[in-house]
Structures are given as structure tokens and as C-alpha cells.
Write a structure and sequence with these properties.
Elements: E1 2-3, H1 11-21, E2 26-29, H2 33-44, E3 47-48, H3 53-60, H4 68-77, E4 81-84, H5 90-101, E5 107-110, E6 124-127, E7 131-134, E8 137-140, H6 143-150, E9 163-166, H7 171-182, H8 196-208, H9 215-223, H10 226-231, H11 234-250, E10 254-258, E11 275-279, H12 281-288, H13 293-304, H14 311-319, H15 335-345, H16 353-357, H17 359-376, H18 381-388, H19 392-415, H20 422-434, H21 441-444, H22 451-459, H23 465-470, H24 473-480, H25 482-494
Parallel strand pairs: 2-5, 2-6, 4-5, 6-9
Antiparallel strand pairs: 1-3, 7-8, 10-11
Helix pairs in contact: 2-4, 3-4, 8-11, 8-12, 12-19, 13-19, 14-17, 15-17, 19-20, 24-25
């Protein structure tokens, strides 16, 4: 392997090149996706005579139409260098990880997501960024996160020793890093039940599954949890849990009765004067859907809204939920476009309560819904990357969450007897799944016909199964390719 060594470049590049000279591998941790891509490019420019053409080609063509990100990644891969983050397609991430394990890829520049759960043969973990931008500005990452990243180096299966290296910008920064991370203690671990959305979901699931049926049983359960151990003040914990119970009752997800009421046939002395809980049919379904009850209440209110509903109505309803966060943030440069989209769509928006309470978050929900709308109108990955800064992997993640929320809307609409909305929600779900306009749905349901082939067929006046049956095989092969043409005809014969 030949390495170009210019007179001057960064410490991170030097460490990467030194790792390769030792015939070893390294993970380089940075704090943003853009930084991971830029760092990989900087290193790859110093590497010559590496022949990973085949892998580069495979990674480039994972998507039907390669994006700028695909091309950037393929260029780095050619030289044995990769970047890795949640914005990559899952197949690209898999190829990078597999080829790092075989030793073909020498350096991966990545965000901290790669620090969790993966066992990779990295001799070095080079931690370039120990600070991250937060609502309070640039802040040091937790010690626990540092330990996760450092722990990727020298895994027992691959090396007898490993090196975790932090990049310090000055002597004082060096001392600060040493004190905070080398000598520092990991932070305390906190129960997830401390987050109210988790607590709401958990309380409903306990009642819906009939693990608890009364206030006494509910509090006895929580007294045994790690959450109670950390909380210590049981009176305050009781107040918090009862507030959640009150929300569930107000939303009609549970019924609450006094155990000594006239409706009770028998009351044990232990439960005299106690509240008893039972999940309603709606509450049980919400629990089965793993929805935060607060989200479910927002979806129900939106579905019951008497406004006319179009695709954007449902896309915004699900975008304005906690489950869809982080939402796409609105930059100054695009704020005017998003405000214009809001004005054009206002009459169809089913949930605008947050417009007055949290304008920034509401506008982010408009942008997120706008992005989903562009996706179902057949805008490709490169367009979405340029316009919304949403990478292919993020498209997949967002559309998966959106699909779950739309399915939840469908199930809630069924229970609420809002039958007139069911077919509309199904259509939006299908369009979201395939990223197509409604006119292509009859075609994309056929195995192997994605949105690109479906659009080609439609433009050649083949609009449904009937049209596919009528077209001759030679014409079909010309439009979609020989193998696909034969495959479609076989499916139609078998169907």
C-alpha cells in the first residue's frame, strides 16, 4: 500500500496513516455525519494503489439511482476508507462492516452510533470529537459514551492489545481530557421510567395486560422497581403515577372505579375504599400498538377533526408526534418555503395546537410532513438529500416510523367507527411504502417492480395487471429488462 505523505495535515489523518502502516485497522469517532464523510475523504486522498473497485461499484449501486452520498462513499471505499452513520442505506452499512471484518477496509470514520453493540477488529479507536452541540451549546459527551467508544479498540477476539486515542487541541485541553475521561467516573444510570412518555406507556400496559388492577397493586409494583429506588420519595412517586392514571382516565383509555362502589359484587377488606382499574377496548389496542398514550390521544383528536382530509393531513398528523423526533429542523434559508407550505396546507392540518405553544417544533413538523409528501410523489433519494438534507438511511428510518404511525391511525379509526377514512389511510401507507403516486399502486404491488420500473411501464401506457397481461413479452423486456420481463410474465401466469 502506497501512502502519499504531504508536508502537513491533521493529527487524525496522521494517526490513520500510521495505523495502516502498522497493517492495523481503526475506527475514528466524530460528532456529525458531515464530519464523518469529510474525514474519510481527507484520509482517502492520501492513499494510492488500493484496488477495491468491485466493492466500490457494489456500494455505489445499492440504490437504483446513486446519490451524491453514494458516489462520495464509493470513492473513499476504493481506497480502503469508509464513513459510517445512520444516513447510509442499511445494505451499505452491512457491506462496510463485513469488509472491515475481513480487513479489506482499513479505516471507518463514524458517528458514535457504531460504538454500541458491534464487535469489530479495530486496533485503534481514535476519538476526534469529545464535544457535541446541545441546547446549551458545545458540551463534553458523557464519560459512559467515551468508554463505549474506547471499548471498541483491541477486542479480545481480534487483538491482544488496543489503543484508545483522544485528540487534544492544547496542553490545557490534554489535562482536561485526562481528568474527565481517563480518571473520571462514569455517570449514574437512570431508569427510563423517569421519562414521562415511557411511564405513560408502561402504566397503560400494566393495566391493559391485567398485571395490575388497582392502585394498591400498581404502587406495589412500582415500589419494587429501580425507578423507585432512585426516586426515594415514595409520596412524590405516588403523585406522579396517579397523575398518569388521571391522564389515561381523561383520555378514556382506562376506567377507574372505587372498589366499594355499588357496581362491585364483592370487595376484599384489603381493597376497601381502593381504586380499581380496567383498560377500555381503545386502551388495550393502544397498548398493543406500543403507542405513547399522549400520541394516541393526539392521533384520535386529529382523526375526529371535521376538516377535509388529504394526504398531507395524515402525514402532518403523524409528523407532529414525539415518535417522529428528531424532526427535520428548519434553517433560516428555507423558513420562507416552509411558511408558504404551511399557508397552502393550513385548511387540511388536523393538529395545529403546537403552532401557538412551540412555533419552532411545529414548523419542523411541517417540514417533516413536506418531506414525506415529496417522497410519496416520487422524488428520488438525491432530490431529498439536496432539498431536505435527508440521507437514504434516514429516509428508510423515517418512513418506517411513519408507516407504524399510519397503521396505528388505521386501527384507531376502525375502533372509532371512522370507516370513511380507512381507505385513504391505506393508500397513504402504500404510497409511503413504495414512494409512488397513487396511479402506480397497481404496478408496484407486483414483486420486483419498484417505482422506477413502474413509472417506465406507466409511461408506456401499461397501467395495471390487465395491461401487463396484454403486452407482448418482447415489448415488456424492452421496457423493464429481459430477466424482469420473464419474471413478471411468470408471476402473472401463476397468479
Amino acid at each position: 500500500m502506497k501512502i502519499d505523505m504531504p508536508f502537513e495535515h491533521s493529527e487524525t489523518v496522521d494517526l490513520a496513516l500510521d495505523t495502516i502502516k502498522k497493517d492495523k485497522q481503526a475506527l475514528i469517532f466524530v460528532n456529525t455525519k458531515n464530519s464523518a464523510e469529510k474525514q474519510a475523504e481527507d484520509i482517502s486522498k492520501q492513499i494510492k494503489n488500493i484496488d477495491l473497485e468491485e466493492l466500490s461499484y457494489e456500494i455505489l449501486n445499492v440504490l437504483p439511482t446513486p446519490t451524491k452520498q453514494c458516489k462520495r462513499l464509493a470513492d473513499c471505499i476504493k481506497r480502503g476508507i469508509a464513513f459510517h452513520h445512520s444516513g447510509l442505506n442499511s445494505k451499505q452499512r452491512e457491506l462496510i462492516e463485513d469488509n472491515f471484518r475481513t480487513g479489506a477496509i482499513k479505516i471507518i470514520c463514524c458517528t458514535p452510533t457504531l460504538a454500541a453493540g458491534l464487535d469489530l477488529p479495530a486496533f485503534r479507536a481514535i476519538i476526534k470529537d469529545l464535544k457535541r452541540f446541545t441546547s446549551r451549546g458545545m458540551q463534553f459527551i458523557p464519560v459512559l459514551e467515551y468508554l463505549q467508544m474506547a471499548g471498541r479498540a483491541g477486542r479480545p477476539k481480534f487483538d491482544s492489545v488496543g489503543e484508545a486515542i483522544c485528540i487534544a487541541k492544547s496542553d490545557s485541553n490534554n489535562e482536561e481530557i485526562y481528568e474527565k475521561y481517563i480518571m473520571g467516573e462514569p455517570e449514574d444510570i437512570y431508569s427510563k421510567l423517569a421519562a414521562e412518555p415511557v411511564l405513560r406507556t408502561y402504566v397503560l400496559s400494566l393495566i391493559a395486560s391485567e398485571l395490575v388492577g388497582s392502585k394498591k397493586e400498581l404502587m406495589e409494583f412500582f415500589e419494587k422497581t429501580f425507578f423507585a429506588h432512585q426516586y426515594e420519595d415514595m409520596a412524590q412517586l405516588n403523585s406522579l403515577v396517579m397523575r398518569v392514571v388521571g391522564m389515561l382516565k381523561d383520555w378514556e383509555f382506562i376506567s377507574v372505579e372505587s372498589a366499594d362502589s355499588e357496581t362491585s359484587d364483592f370487595t376484599s377488606a384489603d381493597f376497601f375504599g381502593e381504586e380499581t382499574y380496567k383498560a377500555t377496548l381503545l386502551g388495550k389496542r393502544i397498548s398493543e400498538l406500543y403507542l405513547d398514550p399522549y400520541t394516541a390521544s393526539k392521533l384520535i383528536d386529529g382523526l375526529k377533526n371535521n376538516k377535509d382530509k388529504v394526504e398531507f393531513s395524515y402525514l402532518h398528523l403523524i409528523s407532529n408526534t414525539l415518535e417522529m423526533r428528531p424532526l427535520l429542523s428548519v434553517t433560516k434559508a428555507e423558513s420562507e418555503d416552509i411558511e408558504e407550505k404551511l399557508e397552502l396546507s393550513r385548511e387540511y392540518i388536523l393538529d395545529d395546537e403546537d403552532f401557538f405553544e412551540d412555533y419552532y417544533t411545529f414548523m419542523s413538523s411541517i417540514k417533516t410532513a413536506f418531506f414525506l409528501e415529496e417522497w410519496i410523489n416520487e422524488k428520488d433519494e438525491d432530490f431529498l438529500l439536496t432539498k431536505f438534507k435527508v440521507r437514504p438511511g434516514e429516509i428508510k428510518y423515517k418512513t418506517n416510523i411513519a408507516d407504524w404511525l399510519l397503521y396505528s391511525c388505521h386501527e384507531l379509526a376502525k375502533l372509532l367507527m371512522l370507516k370513511e377514512q380507512l381507505s385513504s389511510i391505506v393508500k397513504v401507507r402504500l404510497r409511503l411504502q413504495y414512494g409512488v403516486k397513487e396511479e402506480l399502486l397497481p404496478l408496484v404491488k407486483i414483486k420486483g417492480i419498484g417505482k422506477v420500473r413502474a413509472r417506465k411501464l406507466f409511461n408506456n401506457n401499461i397501467k395495471d395487471v390487465r395491461g401487463l397481461k396484454k403486452v407482448d413479452i418482447s415489448s415488456l423486456k424492452r421496457i423493464v429488462g429481459e430477466k424482469m420481463g420473464v419474471n413478471i410474465k411468470k408471476q402473472l401466469l401463476m397468479g
